[in-house]
């Protein structure tokens, strides 16, 4: 029997969503030229929604007024962008943010690396991450020289009692939309997490990676507003525009700002990109883009829910977790029909406590999205058991 082609062999191929797209010389895909790959891995937005016109116009304007291209001038990022971000984040976070507190980064991971090495330098030697979480972020903390503890999450988010039993003084969390499981940190856990930070004289690093996409009318807000002196808030354009821009930001507690910025060798994101984004913010293009894309992603999520694919956690973001007992079989048989799927397994630090699929419904391009989702539904539905594995239980300690 012919070997079934491996759909995840290359990012370019897997991300193409095109009929029979093949990397030159990639013989492993040769048998697959008449197949369509429908990519549901989490992590990236629909690139066909990228606001090319506004972006190109922003870059063109920035390049034209070269007077703003001042090279090594300000390590914190371009002043125009920091002012625009301060205005926007003040509204989003519900507390005043000053441009001096903002560090423009090369995406969240870059900001995390800068913050982690500054905190280590200040004597905070151990950090905690959620279990499960993105493995890259755990590695970033380890490479910054921190000892990394893994702390479980349950239906209420991070288990703060377990956190307090570690030596950590830094906690990296996704409180508004746990990645990848999808729950929000409960109110009482938020309070206890901030109490913990004050007690150990430590900091919480808030990864608000997809905060622009909240579909409930009253979504849980960012943690930052509850104690701006203890929370380092991180945002990114990786979900709203493209991970390829490498553009994000940190909002720093005032007393940490100089310690972190002193360790930054140069601007972290190309000035032309910063200025193009700044113009999008100023002219309202970004808000319009968010409204449009939010509607699109919400429709996709609701389509899956309406078809009986019940996703964990709050109604938000570009991905959802479907708990199933045997993700391996669903992934493998999905691959045979052209679906690129990812399980929760790689996000756990040890043996998984829940099995499931992390469905990145944001990734398929508009041309194929609805067909892709129907294909996915057809694939998954027969494999669902009537009772299902049940939702992730809430915690013992709230
Ligand atoms: C949990 C989480 N945080 C942050 C990000 C964004 O990271 P970056 O801004 O470095 O692209 C991602 C992207 O996949 C993510 O999954």
Structure explained in plain terms:
The protein has 398 residues and is α/β, with parallel strands linked by helices. It folds into two domains: 11-49 and 287-383, Aspartate Aminotransferase, domain 1; 53-283, Type I PLP-dependent aspartate aminotransferase-like (Major domain) (Aspartate Aminotransferase, domain 2), CATH 3.40.640.10. The chain is 36% helix and 13% strand. It has twelve helices and twelve strands. It has helices at residues 11-14, 52-64, 79-93, 108-121, 135-143, 160-164, 187-199, 254-262, 271-283, 285-306, 327-336, 366-380, and strands spanning 38-39, 102-105, 126-131, 147-154, 157-158, 170-173, 203-207, 231-236, 248-251, 320-323, 339-340, 356-359. The protein has an eight-stranded mixed sheet with strand order 2-9-8-7-6-3-4-5, with helices on both faces. Helix 3 (79-93) crosses helix 9 (271-283) and helix 4 (108-121) runs parallel beside helix 5 (135-143). The longest helix has 22 residues, at 285-306. The N and C termini lie far apart (54 Å). Residues 43, 107-109, 134, 174, 179, 207, 209, 236, 238, 243, 248 line the site of pyridoxal-5'-phosphate.
């Amino acid at each position: 029997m012919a070997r079934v082609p491996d759909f995840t062999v290359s990012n370019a191929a897997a991300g193409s969503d095109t009929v029979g797209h093949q990397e030159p010389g990639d013989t492993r895909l040769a048998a697959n030229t008449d197949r369509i790959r429908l990519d549901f891995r989490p992590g990236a937005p629909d690139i066909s929604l990228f606001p090319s016109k506004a972006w190109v116009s922003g870059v063109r304007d920035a390049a034209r007024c070269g007077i703003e291209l001042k090279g090594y001038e300000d390590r914190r990022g371009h002043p125009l962008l920091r002012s625009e971000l301060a205005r926007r984040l003040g509204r989003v976070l519900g507390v005043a943010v000053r441009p001096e507190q903002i560090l423009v980064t090369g995406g969240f991971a870059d900001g995390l690396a800068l913050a982690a090495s500054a905190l280590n330098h200040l004597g905070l030697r151990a950090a905690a991450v959620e279990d499960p979480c993105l493995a890259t972020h755990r590695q970033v903390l380890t490479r910054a020289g921190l000892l990394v503890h893994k702390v479980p999450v349950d239906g209420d988010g991070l288990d703060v009692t377990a956190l307090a039993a570690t030596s950590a003084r830094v906690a990296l969390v996704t409180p508004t939309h746990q990645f990848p499981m999808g729950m929000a940190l409960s109110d009482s856990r938020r309070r206890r997490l901030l109490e913990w930070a004050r007690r150990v004289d430590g900091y919480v690093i808030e990864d608000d990676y997809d905060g622009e996409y909240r579909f409930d009318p009253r979504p849980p807000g960012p943690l930052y507003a509850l104690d701006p002196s203890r929370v380092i808030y991180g945002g990114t354009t990786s979900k709203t525009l493209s991970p390829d821009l490498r553009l994000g930001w940190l909002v720093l507690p005032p007393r940490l700002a100089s310690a972190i910025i002193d360790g930054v060798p140069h601007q972290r994101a190309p000035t032309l990109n910063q200025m193009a984004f700044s113009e999008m913010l100023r002219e309202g293009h970004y808000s319009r883009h968010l409204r449009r894309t939010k509607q699109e992603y919400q429709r996709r999520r609701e389509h899956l829910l309406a078809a009986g694919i019940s996703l964990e956690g709050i109604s938000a973001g570009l991905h959802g977790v479907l708990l199933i007992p045997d993700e391996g079989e669903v992934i493998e048989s999905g691959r045979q029909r052209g679906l690129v799927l990812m399980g929760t397994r790689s996000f756990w630090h040890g043996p998984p406590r829940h099995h499931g699929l992390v469905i990145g419904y944001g990734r398929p391009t508009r041309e194929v999205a609805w067909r892709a989702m129907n294909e996915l539904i057809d694939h998954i539905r027969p494999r669902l058991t009537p009772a299902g594995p049940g939702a992730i239980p809430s915690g013992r300690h709230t």
